[in-house]
Each structure stands twice: as structure tokens, then as C-alpha cells.
Design brief:
This protein is mainly beta. The chain is built from no helices and 22 strands.
Length: about 300
């Protein structure tokens, strides 16, 4: 676990100024997918994916089953084809899916030539039936697994966050359960230099031809690097013997809270304090238990 910068509460203001490059962010609160390029390769053979917006603030992608083995399994996706990335950080929340369906749900990166039998790039996908997450390199829509990991048990009622980043040929992927912050379920790191740049996006693909796909996504974020922020406390309120603290941090990121009795030795309290996609978050700390200071850091 790495920490990037910190902010000490009631002591000093040690600030991390990581900066945030221009990013592509979509919470789908506008109830549409403006700016996205839909990828429905099986439309060419009469099997079209559908795109909808449950509640007006989420993005649902479905592809029906199709019986012809020659055309491959049901699959569909959507790309942000307005920006091509070499180094990148991309993440999305998987907020609804069928845990009994043999379907891969997740992210696309460095995509080129989208279409039936032509798409190249990388996919970071979670399969709930197999309880595994896979990083694959995709060439002409054929996938080769280059890294995978078991996903530790999670409550399927909770949303998941999939995160994938690359610097040069080094890829790092993670999957989190979004409950009481962000709980890490699995992560991988691997080197691969097959594709150097391309678009990012989201997708689903089934294993059997007879399994339709169905994924609902939210809170998409993509940029040339992991989001940074200037950590700062924006408000403090007393609530009995606790202080409720509002902060501005990394958009969609996890933060670590530590305490100290002497301002020299620090002990971790919580490593899963999550900021929203506007960068705003909240935590509470005790009053009058001997602590001299509290420190908030960015979890990387």
C-alpha cells in the first residue's frame, strides 16, 4: 500500500499537489451517452446491442444471445473515442449485473479498429461465475489472458469499482468493493508492449453463445494519469464526542486516515475513506482521547 502526500489535521497543512490532467468523466446524470461511441459488432450480422439509462443516471449495456459460432459470443461496449491515450488511468463502477451469468464485465483500453473481427487493445474484466478478474490483450477480437487473479468473496449487492492504469508497458489493475469506502478485492501488475495507444471504454462479453450480456455502469473516469488533488479540509463539525470533517481529495479515490499521540509515530485508523467524483469526502475522529493530530493521505 502506498501513500501519496498527506494532510495533517489540527497540526500543519502538508499538501499534496499532484495535479489533475484534463480527464473524461461521466456520471451519466444527464441520462444519455453523449460523447460515447457505441460498439455493437454483432449488429453487422443482425444481433444488435441495446443501450439504456436506468433511473436516468446509469449506463446499461445489453447484447442478446446469438446462435452462430462463427460470429463469436454476445458482446457490446462503448468507447470514449475523442481521446487516444498511451499512458492512462481508467476506472468505472459496475453497479448492477447478474452474478449467476457467465459474463465478463469491465474496461477497455488502448483500443484500435473497433468492429467485428477487427478490434485490438486491452480488456480488464470481472467474471462473477468464475470469481476471477482478467487482463487480456485483444487482437482482432481474439483475447489472450496476460494476467488474472481470484476475486475474494464480496457481497454481490454492493457495487464494484474496476481500475486499470498503464505507464509504458507496465499495467496495473485492481477491483474494489464499494462498501464502507473502497475494499480491495484483487490486483495484478504485468508488462506487455503489444499496443502502445488507443481509446478507453467499457464492455461486456459472455463465454457461451447462449448467454446474453447485461451490465450497468456508473462513474466513468479516464485520464493520462491517476487523479491527483490538493488535499484540504473544507469543514469541521462537532457531533458529541466526535468531530465530523469534510475534505477535498482525489476524485473517486481512496484515502488513509492516521492518528498520533506525539506527532512522531503515526498509526493507521482507516485506509478506505472514499472521495466522491467531485473530490469531496468525509470522515470522523474522536475528541479527547489523547491524540495530538490526525493525518490524511492519498492511497495509491
Amino acid at each position: 500500500m502506498k501513500r501519496s502526500g498527506s494532510l495533517a489535521l489540527f497540526v500543519t497543512a502538508s499538501i499534496f499537489a499532484g495535479g489533475l490532467a484534463v480527464a473524461q468523466i461521466d456520471t451519466f446524470d444527464d441520462g444519455d451517452d453523449a460523447g460515447w461511441t457505441r460498439v455493437s459488432p454483432l449488429t453487422a450480422v443482425g444481433v444488435s446491442a441495446t443501450y439504456s439509462f436506468p433511473g436516468g443516471d446509469r449506463y446499461r449495456i445489453q447484447c442478446p444471445e446469438q446462435p452462430n459460432e462463427a460470429f463469436g459470443p454476445p458482446r457490446a461496449g462503448s468507447l470514449r473515442a475523442d481521446v487516444s491515450y498511451s499512458d492512462f488511468h481508467v476506472q468505472v463502477d459496475l453497479v448492477d449485473f447478474d452474478p449467476a451469468a457467465d459474463v465478463h464485465h469491465g474496461l477497455l483500453a488502448r483500443v484500435r479498429q473497433p468492429g467485428i473481427g477487427t478490434l485490438d487493445g486491452y480488456a480488464w474484466v470481472y467474471n462473477p461465475v468464475e470469481a476471477r478478474i482478467y487482463l487480456t490483450v485483444v487482437t482482432d477480437e481474439d483475447s489472450e489472458v496476460i494476467a488474472d487473479a481470484e476475486v475474494f468473496p464480496s457481497d454481490i449487492a454492493n457495487p464494484l469499482r474496476l481500475v486499470l492504469g498503464a505507464s509504458g508497458s507496465t499495467f496495473r489493475g485492481a477491483i474494489y468493493e464499494l462498501v464502507d469506502g473502497a475494499q480491495l478485492l484483487a490486483e495484478v501488475e504485468v508488462d506487455d508492449a503489444t499496443y502502445a495507444s488507443g481509446f478507453c471504454g467499457i464492455l461486456n462479453v459472455s463465454d457461451p453463445l447462449t448467454q446474453a450480456t447485461d451490465s450497468t455502469f456508473d462513474n466513468y473516469f479516464a485520464a493520462a494519469e491517476a487523479p491527483g488533488a490538493e488535499l484540504r479540509i473544507t469543514g469541521v463539525e462537532r457531533d458529541g464526542d466526535m468531530l465530523r470533517c469534510q475534505f477535498l481529495g482525489v476524485p473517486g479515490g481512496a484515502h488513509v486516515l492516521e492518528s498520533s499521540g506525539d506527532l512522531a509515530q503515526w498509526g493507521e485508523i482507516d485506509d478506505s475513506i472514499l472521495a466522491g467524483f467531485d473530490g469531496r469526502g468525509e470522515f470522523t475522529v474522536p475528541i479527547g482521547e489523547g491524540e495530538q493530530g490526525f493525518r490524511l493521505s492519498v492511497l495509491e
